[in-house]
Automatic annotation (TrEMBL), chain A:
Family: Belongs to the FAD-binding oxidoreductase/transferase type 4 family.
Subcellular location field: Peroxisome
Keywords from the UniProt entry: FAD, Flavoprotein, Oxidoreductase, Peroxisome
Protein name: D-2-hydroxyglutarate dehydrogenase, mitochondrial
From TrEMBL, chain B:
Record note on quaternary structure: Heterodimer of an alpha and a beta subunit.
Residues in Electron transfer flavoprotein alpha/beta-subunit N-terminal domain copies: 24-216
Protein name, per record: Electron transfer flavoprotein subunit beta
Localisation per UniProt entry: Mitochondrion matrix
GO CC annotations, alphabetized: mitochondrial matrix
């Protein structure tokens, strides 16, 4: 069968981050509370009678108290943060979540809502001893209407599984990111995740039609609308999209799925300068217009990182910049014609030096791997400071050059890649060894630079724990005060995901 | 310098999920993405590298199949092959086309084109036959170096390292010869834009098996094509005694 080649090549196609989570269990990050200037909030501590309540509610199988089992819930994906939670709860239903939150609210116990634990900013791990409420077992698909394209499912469904499910009806989830093999849709919604195809399908505020949310006091808020148009009162769901679990616990999601494209083409291009990258991008937008579905950029140090640590070579040789341009459409012949016109023109105008183009699924996967697996290489390069910023396109790469110069030989590697189409840059600084001095050398300098360039200090990763102290750089006092007011209304005791998003006093 | 013939087959792309047709006579191919058999890509790459080292003067790619097989020949041309020959076989005749037929076709073309080396992938990922190279060598009465993971070409002979069950075997054989490419022979290149452009101007000649005097009447009849049986769920047993009981009950142990 097809087994022979697939087995040989499949080892490269690892889409989940779970492989890496187990790779370095011997390097324990120290407790977050020891490494950061943060004080535990005014919450009660877990007592025996609390544990008994949870056992009664969920059964012993769905309450985790064993220290070594707790590891993967307490430590974040990058292994930079370690919480001190002594209990993880795994509810299956909205009612169970409601009972849990009602109990925790009454007993002033802090909780940390958790999905796939793939947050890049420490939003998904406890900071102290917050009770982790994990959605692993809330993974039922409730309904799919293949005419309207509306999918309704529980918050704990893994993104990739949802996509595979709707693919069977020729639909697709309008969201795609590298963590798809591990992340939960509830987490995606709570963080307003962006990803590779935001350029084409828009963000979750547009695609999520409805939510079911459990409030801090346990009340179930049913806003699970499945209609495209419903202007009936305040659109409450938007409060929960992007508030990172601090205003409510998302338990069900209704999401609009577009049709799966019949024809996908991928071009991998090599360019001389960033100016040429922008010219090629502008040409792509105009020539490919409605079929353009992704535009990603990578610089040379990023490609070198991938060559060195993941042994994935560049398909076209070495160039200063690389562009990945994807088209998705309903007619292969038409799309290929448009794409070839664009490629011919960009070669003739000397925007592009070289490139390859394909519509073969296996080659598309191989090329996407080069971009999607970049984070897997971080660990192997040293300690990585990562930044996810939006910048006006003119300044997109200027920041990388400036930071590279600023760091000098303090850094092992400064590299940038990202969703060029959205102006979203992922900038990383690797150092051989972490030190608080290096950290304070970089932050807040880099954030101040981003604000200076009229950018956003967090494009899609959110604020979480790590960027809460910089929120005042991004939003006015009036805005932050209103956020705090909303938080006080929805979660007066502050039990939902404390220490995250809003700055600590 | 030697002349090389490379056999390339159009198969369903290995990243695509295969579906059995409702009539159980085959797999769904309509509207499904196809590409060059990965082992044939490796064969093409090896030929192109030999040409770059000036060991080979001309490379001809041959594909047997429906009109869409020309796409696969175009890919080979974009990788550096000089010209292509499309042997048109379509419809029910294509369903029953077997290595026994293809080997005769390749052998005839090899003779017509006066080639010194025939390189093909070790097997196609749709039928896993692993017969074409061997049969072609037999028809031509040429030596065969199969499962090649390293090829050194001399003037009159080849030194080939083969991947075999016991490890690696190195053999020498005279040229002309037939080689089948194994996975570790090389890493095929991507066709780059300038070469894709150049390839559009390279010639592809069309012939039929009849033109070559090869009879492709079916030698097999496909009775049915089915999905592999669904894997039964396992059972977790509490202890060894329960395991032994289960084994005895199932008649696996006396």
């Amino acid at each position: 069968m097809f087994g022979s080649v697939r087995k040989c090549v499949n080892s490269c196609f690892v889409n989940t981050y779970i492989v890496l989570r187990n790779a370095k269990l011997h390097t324990r990050p120290d407790f977050t509370k020891n490494n950061f200037n943060v004080t535990r909030g005014y919450y009660n501590t877990l007592e025996e009678n609390h544990i008994q309540f949870f056992y009664q509610l969920l059964g012993e199988q769905r309450v985790i108290v064993n220290v070594s089992d707790l590891e993967r819930y307490n430590v974040d994906w990058f292994r930079h943060l370690r919480g001190n939670s002594s209990i993880v709860l795994r509810p299956k239903t909205t009612e169970e979540v409601s009972h849990i939150l009602s109990f925790c609210n009454q007993n002033r116990l802090a909780v940390c809502p958790q999905g796939g634990n793939t947050s890049m900013v420490g939003a998904s791990v406890p900071i102290f001893d917050e009770i982790v409420i994990n959605t692993d077992l809330m993974n039922e698909i409730i309904s799919l209407d293949d005419t309207s394209g509306v999918l309704v499912c529980q918050a704990g469904c893994i993104l990739e599984n949802l996509n595979n499910y709707v693919n069977k009806k020729d639909l697709m989830i309008p969201l795609d990111l590298g963590a798809k093999g591990s992340c939960h849709i509830g987490g995606n919604v709570s963080t307003n995740a962006g990803g590779l195809r935001l350029l084409r399908y828009g963000n979750l505020h547009g695609n999520v039609l409805g939510l079911e949310v459990v409030k801090a006091d346990g009340e179930i808020l049913d806003c699970l609308n499945t209609l495209k148009k419903d202007n009936t009162g305040y659109h409450l769901k938007h409060l929960f999209i992007g508030s990172e679990g601090t205003l409510g616990f998302v338990t069900k999601v209704a999401i609009q799925c577009p049709p799966k494209p019949k024809s996908i083409n991928l071009a991998f291009l090599g360019l001389q300068t960033y100016e040429k990258v922008l010219k090629a991008y502008k040409l792509a937008k105009h020539s490919l217009g409605e079929i353009l579905s992704a535009v990603e950029v990578m610089d040379t140090p990023t490609m070198q990182l991938v060559n060195e640590h993941l042994h994935l070579p560049s398909p076209i040789g070495d160039y200063p910049f690389y562009l990945i341009i994807e088209t998705s459409g309903s007619n292969e012949k038409h799309d290929l014609e448009k794409l070839n016109t664009f490629l011919d023109l960009s070669l003739v105008k000397h925007f592009v030096l070289n490139g390859t183009v394909t519509s073969e699924p296996s080659k598309c996967q191989a090329i996407w791997n080069i971009r999607e697996r970049i984070p897997e290489a971080f660990h192997k390069d040293g300690y990585v400071f990562l930044y996810d910023v939006t910048l006006p396109l003119q300044n997109y790469y200027t920041l990388v050059k400036e930071i590279r110069e600023y760091m000098g030989n303090k850094a092992h590697r400064v590299f940038g890649f990202g969703h060029l189409g959205d102006g979203n840059l992922h900038l990383q600084i690797t150092v051989k060894k972490y030190s608080p001095e290096i950290k304070s050398f970089i932050e807040p300098y880099i954030f101040e630079k981003v604000i200076e360039m009229n950018g956003s200090i967090s494009a899609e990763h959110g604020i979480g724990f790590l960027k809460a102290k910089y929120l005042h750089l991004a939003k006015s006092n009036a805005a932050i005060n209103l956020m705090q007011d909303l938080k006080d209304v929805l979660d007066p005791k502050g039990i939902l995901n404390p220490y995250k998003v809003l700055p600590r006093e | 310098m030697a002349r090389v013939l490379v056999g390339v087959k159009r198969v369903i792309d290995y990243a695509v999920k295969i579906r059995v047709k409702p009539d159980k006579k085959g797999v769904v191919t309509d509207g499904v993405k196809h590409s060059m058999n990965p082992f044939d890509e490796i064969a093409v790459e090896e030929a192109v590298r030999m040409k770059e080292k000036k060991l080979v003067s001309e490379i001809i790619a041959v594909s047997c199949g429906p009109v869409q097989s020309q796409e696969v020949i175009r890919t080979a041309l974009a990788m550096g092959v000089d010209k292509g020959i499309h042997v048109e076989v379509s419809g029910p005749e294509y369903e029953t086309l077997q290595p026994i037929h293809v080997s005769k076709i390749l052998a005839k073309i090899a003779q017509n084109e006066k080639v010194d080396l025939v390189i093909v992938g070790k097997q196609a990922i749709d039928d896993d036959s692993n017969q074409t190279a061997q049969m072609t060598a037999a028809v031509l009465d040429w030596p065969q170096a199969t499962f090649a993971s390293k090829i050194e070409k001399g003037d009159k002979e080849l030194t080939v390292t083969r991947e075999v069950d016991g490890g690696l075997e190195t053999i020498k054989c005279k040229i002309p010869a037939v080689i089948s490419a194994d996975l570790r022979l090389n890493e095929p290149r991507y066709a780059t834009l300038p070469n894709i452009m150049k390839a559009k101007k390279k010639p592809i000649t069309k012939v039929t098996p009849k033109d070559l005097g090869v009879d492709i009447s079916p030698r097999i009849e496909i009775l049915s094509v089915e999905d592999p049986p669904v894997r039964q769920a396992g059972v977790i047993l509490p202890d060894v005694d329960a395991l032994v009981t289960k084994l005895k009950e199932g008649g696996h142990v006396p």
